[in-house]
Amino acid sequence: MSDRERSSGNGRLLMGISWAVLLLGLWLWGRQVTDVPPGMSARTTGDVAAVGRPLEVELPHSAEPLGEALPQRVDIPAMGVQAPVVARGLDGHGAVQPPPFDQPGVVGWYAAGVKPGAAGTALFVGHVDTETRPAIFYKLSTLRPGDAVRVVRDDGRVAEFTVDDVQVLARDRFDAQQAYGPRKPGRAELRMITCGGSFDRDSGGYTANVVVNAYLTGSGP
C-alpha cells in the first residue's frame, strides 16, 4: 500500500478505503469461505502482468506444515528483499492495520490469523511506495511461479515457500474468496498483498491489489 494515500488531507479515511478489501477478505476468511480451484487467476489490469501459473513451470511438492512460531523476517531473493516482520491487527474501523507509514521497509503480518509455516494461509501486507520512493513490496508483481520466499521464525527455523500464483485483482471486482482462500486445503501457504494497478488521484488510492500466493516446500535452520 502507498503513503500517497495521505496526500489528500484525508489520510485516515483513505487508508480505510484502501484496506477495505482486506477487511472483507478477512471476514469471509474467518467464516471459512475458502474453497478456491487450484490455478485460478484473474485478468491483468495494466499493472506488471499477473502471470498466474504458466504450464511450463514445474513446481516442487508441498512440505508438511510446521508447528506454530512467530515470523521475524522475510527474505525474497528475486526482489532483493530482506525485511523485518511486525504483527498487525485491526484498527478502530475494523480494517487491517498496514505497517506504519514511517516504516516503508517493514512487512506486516496479520497476527490474528495463521502463523507462517503452519497449516492454513498466513497473510503478509506491505506498502508499494511512499510519496518519494519505492517501499518494501514495490516489486511484488514481478515475482513468478518458482521464486523462493523464506520466513525466519522465532523457533530458529526458516520456513521455505515457493511462489505458485501471481494475480492482479481490480478493486471494483475484488473476489475475497479468490484472494484469501487456500489454494489447496491442508497446505501451509503464504499470501502477500500490496497495491497495484494505477494510482487514482481522485480517490487517493490504487485501482487494484497485487496478490501473490506461495506454499511451504521445505524448512531449515
UniProtKB/TrEMBL annotation:
Gene Ontology MF annotations: hydrolase activity
Family matches, as SUPFAM superfamilies: Sortase (SSF63817)
Transmembrane region(s): 12-30
Keywords: Hydrolase, Membrane, Transmembrane, Transmembrane helix
Matches recorded under Gene3D superfamilies: Sortase (2.40.260.10)
Origin: domain of life: Bacteria
NCBIfam families: class_F_sortase
Name listed for the protein in its UniProt record: Class F sortase
UniProt organism field: Streptomyces avermitilis (strain ATCC 31267 / DSM 46492 / JCM 5070 / NBRC 14893 / NCIMB 12804 / NRRL 8165 / MA-4680)
Organism phylogeny: Bacteria, Bacillati, Actinomycetota, Actinomycetes, Kitasatosporales
